[in-house]
Amino acid sequence: MKQTTLCYLERGNQYLMLHRTKKVNDINHDKWIGVGGKFEEGESPDDCMRREVWEETGFTVTKWRYCGIVTFIHNIYEDEHMHIFVCTDWTGEQIVCNEGDLEWIDKSHLLELPTWEGDRIFLKLIAEPRPFFSLKLTYEYDKLKEAVLDGKRL
Question: N or C: which end of the chain has fewer CB within 10 A?
């Protein structure tokens, strides 16, 4: 099972979002997501998140919260465990991302953007003052077939 991270950099009432437009054969093509990617050999979730944020944004994160894990089951793509983070402090200057366009988006407008249906669930979860969560999302093609939060079907 593939291991990945996804991080939402938070600035006031905005998240830094990545509009995935530049990679060929991208499962996330034309969708808006946080920044992140696949684990490299020997990395912890925190290691991967920090490296991916730096590679995609130029920022070095200094304060973050590990929010939860999302298990993706898909009929076409490899199953995945995605570790979700929110970062509230960083240093450095933003760079141009080679995977898409980075843009600060008001949280109130996030659900208007083209995203995966399940992303809408965990975007709401990370906005709540809640403990670590486990979310299982089962997809058939682009359609969310089932969502299970902390063992309870939604």
Answer: N
β-pair type (80-91, 2-11): parallel
Contact status, residue 29 vs residue 105, Cβ threshold 8 Å? no
9 three-state secondary structure? strand
Structure tokens at 92: 């450095």
Contacts of 51 (CB under 8 A, 6+ apart): 40, 43
CA distance linking residue 32 with residue 100, whole number of Å: 9
Class of domain 2-153: alpha beta
Condensed to tens digits (0 to 9), the pLDDT of residues 115-137 reads 989 999 999 999 988 899 999 99
Q: Is 25 helix (H, G, I), strand (E, B) or coil?
A: coil
Each residue's pLDDT tens digit, 82-115: 999 999 999 999 999 988 999 999 999 998 998 9
